[in-house]
Amino acid sequence: MSTQLNAGIPLSHAPDGVGYKLLELPPELVELLESDDPPTLTLHPSPTAALLKTTINGLPKIYSLRQKNTSNGLILLSPFTQTAQQPQQQQPSRPDNKQTTTGPGGDDDMDIEQEGMMDIPIPGLRTLTTLHETIELVPEAEGANAPAVKARGKWHEKFAKGR
After folding, report:
1. What pLDDT, in 10s, does the model give residues 31-72?
2. Most-buried pick from 8, 52, 92, 95 (CB within 10 A)?
3. Beta strands in the chain (DSSP E)
4. What is the model's pLDDT at position 149?
């Protein structure tokens, strides 16, 4: 009878120091980027926002990059495997005093030198970062060099003028 550990999925926090940003792409741009002949994308500065420019079907297309903050964080995970020592069930001894087990391929022999202990791989998850901002691409009108300023809403109309 085999023994199984049921300790759940190990989760550890190990930030890797890389700054991640989540980029939301419009569906038509995703479709073009996944095609056999994807367009070239270029970033250009502007006074109010960065612009992403490309050519789609011979026509220039401009997107402005807008940052959105979210109250719910998105956790970026990475798989990892750790090993744990587990006692191995006793098998009949061999003359060379080594135990053999069948390897992952089914026919390879692996020698286990430790007395009665075996490394068990335990898959787990590692959190790389938590994202609270996403960047969305907003289509701009043709020939626009800078993104249009949008109305901000009633609160800004009433209270933000004096700030």
Report:
1. 989 999 898 999 999 888 899 998 877 888 899 999 888 888
2. 52
3. 11-13, 22-24, 42-44, 51-56, 59-87, 99-102, 109-112, 117-139
4. 56
Amino acid at position 45, single letter? P
Q: What tokens were used for 137?
A: 């691409």
The distance from CA 54 to its chain's CA centroid, rounded to whole angstroms, is: 25
Check if the beta carbon of residue 151 is closer than 8 Å to that of residue 36.
Answer: no
What is the model's pLDDT at position 64? 92
Long-range contacts of 156-163 (CB under 8 A, 24+ apart): none
The set of residues, in sequence order, having a beta carbon less than 8 Å from that of 139 and lying 6+ positions away, is 26, 61, 62, 63
With 0.85 as the threshold, say if the pTM is over it. no
Residue 5 has pLDDT above 50, yes or no: yes
What number is the average pLDDT over the span 5-14?
75
Q: Where are the beta strands (DSSP E) in 88-116?
A: 99-102, 109-112
